[in-house]
Amino acid sequence: MSDTWWRGAAIYQVYLRSFADGNGDGIGDLAGLRAKLPYLAELGVDAIWLNPWYPSPMADGGYDVADYRAIEPSFGTLTEAEDYISEAHALGIRTIIDIVPNHGSDQQEWFVAALAAGPGSLERERFIFRPGRDGGLPPNDWQSIFNGPAWTQVDDGEWYLHLFAPEQPDFNWRNPEVVEEFHSILRFWLDRGVDGIRIDSAAVLFKDLDSVEESYTDHDEVHDVYRGWRRITDSYEGRFLVGEMWMPDQERFALYLRPDEMQTAFNFDFLSRPWDADELRASIDLTLTTHVPIGAPPTWVLSNHDVTRPVTKYGRPDTSFSHQDRKHGMATDPVLGERRARAAALLAMALPGGLYVYQGEELGLPEVENLPDELLQDPLWVRSGGTDRGRDGCRVPIPWSGQEPPFGFGSGTPWLPQPADWKNLTVESQHDDQNSMLTLYRNGLRIRRTELGDGTLTWLDADPGVLLFARDSGLKCITNLSPAPVDLPPHTDLLLTSNPLENGKLPTDTTAWVR
Ligand code: GLC
Ligand code: CA
């Protein structure tokens, strides 16, 4: 086992409550995940990243953590989590967990104690409590990322800060007790064999409350936090950190990847670009110039639990979408979207560095845009006054088998309903179909494992609208985003194409790997 296995790893993101339900209550769980480990081993992934699996009132899908050292009862037990970690290891699959440092749940012990202890107490110092302004106004006018005021008043009159929902009070990272607590939480899980830590909302821990505008992203003090975390992960073998930072400034972004901070971070620039050759090339170059000089491996992400599913996103005629595009009901062409998502998958898999695959991406699941209003759970829906339908559409339970819902997800009614036409997208229906998205991912990941992953790329001359590069192994990847078919580069072997060639040429919106 290499100590730097994560440099070129293919990491599969499991959104536990939507992956597989082992006990029939309609909610995915550890028993379900353990039963599906052979599926993930066959798919060919190196690791699993699990969204928060801790006890949570689920005000934000588990990103409101009530106890950082336990497992959400509807997901299973700590013993089951430990068993899962070792079963996955036995199959060569590592585990990355999600740590949420910016905020806890309002049900977490510390917050309950802070409410009880009252103003001026040491318990309140662990959070960001302030008196309000005259006239019953909050301490400042900051707005929460989930809409509405970023402050909520408690019974004794003080206000607490929450960058997200009111159920997610922000910790005070200037308090050494908070720093120590998270060190202890990291050790708790590293001692239990987890191989990596995903750091939620990593850039926003420090706030300048005197600022009129919201001021919390990327304060210099945050780097000391991750230096401390790095010292801890470095005291174990082969562990790593991956940060979630949504930051437009790549130079500032790179600071998080200095040799004594995080090893990796999610690359959201690539995910945010429209389906356009110049845009994608610019993103790839920007990513490489940000990462290569400092020795950090880039990562490539096409989707996750916060953004629109690729087949829906890439099927929109208006390609000027943003990363958080949730313009539900905006036209999308599913055939075009699937074709482009296939081409994008082989492109992303061929790039140097790590790869993230979000559950269901390998099945080509679309965004579910017509969930009934009353079932929507994302706090964005209610907090936006029903103008933003939120992220539930990419969190619908996975279809495994059969002809009708719940499609083998479990015996109960899934917590979000699956569309009836997903019968054509089940694992069962795609598994042996040579043209399916699943087969494309399985084949791509297999070749990627031996010939791609970590390393560098060399751009080769190509027609306008065409991306062509060679990898160290000699494999060449070509993506045609131009309106006309193009010739493949000289080769002896055609390894894989995202869609069939036409008269020996590579059609529009298609990627091929050749040698
Ligand atoms: C991250 C998570 C998102 C969550 C937010 C607050 O962006 O990916 O799902 O809502 O942090 O924790
Ligand atoms: Ca369950």
Architecture overview:
- Helices cover 26% and strands 12% of the residues.
- The protein has 14 helices and 16 strands.
- The protein has helices spanning 30-35, 37-43, 78-90, 109-117, 176-191, 222-234, 250-255, 268-272, 277-291, 310-313, 334-350, 379-383, 427-431, 437-451, and strands at 10-14, 47-50, 94-99, 129-130, 151-153, 159-161, 196-199, 240-243, 264-265, 299-301, 354-358, 457-459, 466-471, 476-480, 494-497, 510-514.
- The protein is globular, with a radius of gyration of 23 Å.
- The model has no long low-confidence stretch (mean pLDDT 96).
- Bound molecules: alpha-D-glucopyranose and calcium ion.
- Calcium ion is lined by residues 21-23, 25, 27, 29.
Q: Which descriptors would you attach to this protein?
A:
515 residues, alpha/beta, binds alpha-D-glucopyranose, Oligo-1,6-glucosidase, domain 2, Immunoglobulin-like, five-stranded antiparallel sheet, 14 helices, binds calcium ion, TIM Barrel
SSE arrangement, N to C: EHHEHEHEEEHEHEHEHHEHHEHHHEEEEE
Which strand-content bin applies to the residues? 5-15%
Rough shape? Answer: globular
Low-confidence stretches: none
Ligands present: alpha-D-glucopyranose, calcium ion
Number of helices: 14
Instruction: Based on the coordinates given, report the CATH architecture of the largest domain.
Output: Alpha-Beta Barrel
* Strand order in the sheet with the most strands: 9-8-7-3-2-1-11-10
